[in-house]
Amino acid sequence: MKNFSDIQIGNTIGPREQFVSKDECRAFAHSSGFAAPRFTDDEGARKEGLPGMILPGNMSLGLLSKFVTDWIGPEGGAQLVRISTTYRVPVQPDHTLVFQGFVTHSVPEERTAEIDVWIENEEAERLVTGTATVRFDK
Amino acid sequence: MSTTLDLHSHSDASEDSRAPVEAYLNWIKLRRAELPLDGIVLTEHRQFNREADYRPLEDKFGVMVLRASEVETNYGHMLVFGVNDDILARFDFANIRLDAQTLIDEVAKMGGLVVPCHPGRPNIGLCEHYETQPPLGNVVAVEVLNGGSRKGEDERSIELVRRYGYRAVGGSDSHLVSLIGLCATRFDADIRSIDGLVAQLRSGEYQPVDFRPRRKPVPHAVAVETR
Lengths: 138, 227
Fold this sequence. Notes:
Helix content of chain A: 25-40%
Mean pLDDT of chain A: 95
Shape of chain A: elongated
CATH architecture of chain A: Roll
Oligomer: heterodimer
Largest sheet of chain A: 5 strands, antiparallel
Number of domains of chain A: 1
Distance between the termini of chain B: 63 Å
CATH superfamily of chain A: Hotdog Thioesterase
Helix content of chain B: 25-40%
Number of helices of chain A: 4
Number of strands of chain B: 9
């Protein structure tokens, strides 16, 4: 279980590599009601000027959120209370995504830590960046 | 004595950043070995906070904090250094259609300096605007290293500098604490104020510096599609 006192500014989270397939992208798009061609079909995406299928923004957000909650761990002791993201470059499926983060500051009175998180592609280009707030029970 | 400054950063005063100034300075202090910065310049979007006083934080962390602005023009985004009451009276920084040539010329007359930022970026960079409009006059320097650049953007900026003879600076364009200082500008001179910075940008010796860590590429996986 993670405690606030264990948190140090500069702690790293990850890196974690995760391959995201087109099948997973389609499954997310269909299950979440975002089944637009750009999320399900390469040809449809190209017709919209994209290089091919892309992940819905909410899927990237979900993957980043899971990256943080996996860091918190199954024993709990803390909650992800807020995450904000900036979508810099479309995230394409059938690629290995690299998730990373840094604890950048903390607020002792609130027992919260702010964590920079981001997704990179294979060539280390940052695709999605974000800031997560984690609140600790003790 | 030289001075290394991150000339382009956004704190939580900008609508698209959640980074407190104190967290930036603490990060620089903790990472001195990788980020040998003497200071940062806050360039909040479309605003200038003339009341802000960062002296207590400067003393606490030993990092200088200067203030400028990032504004939007008909030639893309530009950093305005040396903002003063005359400049603020003349220009509405919230206007996203400022005339770039007027801004460059009049800010210079009023003691400041305008530096186009991330010129290689689509839509909001100088390079793309130079394809459809004549080159601007009186440009002293442009930002050729930007911490937020995508692949190819800095290269386009470097080509712009070669072609037009502009001087080159660097800035992180940080919106996240951990990205502060990854690109910066090293000046030969000792700089202690925004006026000193403007004077050096006009006629001093300086070059962009790159502190971005390089991660090894991850091999591409072989995709198997069931559909």
